[in-house]
Amino acid sequence: MTTPQAPSTPDQTWGAAPAPGAPPRPGWTPGKKIAAGAVAVAIVAGGGAAIWAASSSSATTGAQAGPGGMTGRTGGPGGAGLASALHGEYVTSDGNGGYVTKITQTGEVTALSATSLTAKSDDGFSKTYTITSAQATGLATGDTVTVVATESGTSATATSVTDGASGPGQAQGNRQGTPPSGAPTQTG
After folding, report:
1. What is the pLDDT of residue 39?
2. SS3 sequence of 49-61
3. Is 149 in contact with 89 (CB distance < 8 Å)?
4. What CA dihedral angle connects 173, 43, 87 and 133, to 10 degrees?
5. 35 has a pLDDT exceeding 80
C-alpha cells in the first residue's frame, strides 16, 4: 500500500509573489511596529547625543554647560534627572583622547571675590571655585548660583557661573549675572 503524498510546491524566490493558494505570511502587528519604532528612536537619539557630546568642547568658558556640555539642566528625556540635583561630579572627554572631571553645584554664594566664589548647597555641601572677574560681575553674597567647573586635584575652576537656580526647561545659554530690570520671570 502506498501513502498519499502532498503536492509539491516549487521553491519560492525571495520577494516573489506567493504561490497561488498559499496562505499569506503574517504582517507586522501594531505592537511589533511600536517596538521597532521605539528602538529606532532610541538608537537615533543615543547616536545623536554621542556625536554631539564628542564634538562639544569642554574648554568653553561663557556658556552654562552641564553633563556632556549640554546647556540648561533638564537632565535628558523627561526633564527630571539633574534638574533637582544640588551638586555632583562626572567625567567627560577632554576632546583630545583624555578625560576631565567636572563638578556642578547649585547653591547660595557664601563668599565672593574677583577670583573666587564659594557656594553652599541646601544639603550643606560647600565648595570654593576659581572664577574670572567677568563671571563675578553682577553676583553678590546670598545669590543662588549654578556653577559648572573643571576639577584638577583639589582645585576647581568654573567654566560657567549662572545667577539663579536652573530648573527644567530653563536653558540659560550664555546668561551670567542678574537679568535686566523688567525682564520676564518664570513662576511655578
Report:
1. 82
2. HHHHHHHCCCCCC
3. no
4. -30
5. yes
